[in-house]
Amino acid sequence: MTTDQLKQNKLTKSSPSPPQQAVTFQISAQKVAKVLVVWVFFVAILGGFSHYVTFQIVPQLDGLLGRGVGNVMRRIGLEEEPSLAHWYSSLALLACAIALGIIAAAEKKIKGPFLGWGLLCLLFCFLALDEAIEIHELFSKPLRLWLGTGGALHWAWVLPYGLLALLVGIASLRFLIRLEPRTRKLFVLAGVIFCASAIGGEMIGSVMYSRGGFESTAYLVINTVEELGEMLAIVIMLFALLSYMGRYIGRIELSFDAPPEDR
User: Fold this and answer.
1) What are the tens digits of pLDDT across the range 132-171?
2) Which of these, 35, 50, 136, 251, could form a disulfide with 76 (CB 3.0-4.6 Å)?
3) Alpha-carbon distance 91 to 6, whole Å?
4) What contacts 67, CB < 8 A, 6 or more positions away?
5) What's this model's pTM, rounded to 2 decimal places?
């Protein structure tokens, strides 16, 4: 037997055999939501504790143990970006975008109203990107200096994003009205909680920050509630999407075609 034949035989033995039947994964909207709710509360509580340690204890610990302690706690906390909470929120928003994209593709295949789903998919892609690389933070300082804002508008990014949320809400009215009631209620609930937490919570947090800085206990509480509200809103949205897919799409088949020379 030649060397080439030996290599071919070895490759054939080590290569996995083609599957005899389709590999099926079942996703339960209820189970996913329960796991994520537990995770969200864990991240929020841990982040609030880390925030307290960062601004109340670490300044003394840095001198004893080095600045590394503070850096680790800031990445776990809720204030610094990027952090554990923002990493999770970015992934959760991306999961919503993927689910919306699947629904849009399915609706298009059956000649259904796919445009609204597709636009929502793009919106959540932007939100996931924004959460990951902090696009909104780029607006705060320039707008604050330009408009001279302070107090509740210290983080001035809430102005353009609040306007964007209003426009998206108005533009989505027709789409929401055409949804079946259960999904519509969950979408509205998720949107209200998310906007109230992200924009309203940020404005209240700005007031607390202007009075006592990051060390303020009131700011710590507001910031924790804000992040918790945002993360819970995303869980509600993902639950609504998975439930919708389970009721109206059901089974999704994904096939991978091998190159002709591998068949």
Assistant:
1) 888 887 878 888 888 887 788 888 888 899 999 999 999 8
2) 50
3) 46
4) none
5) 0.83
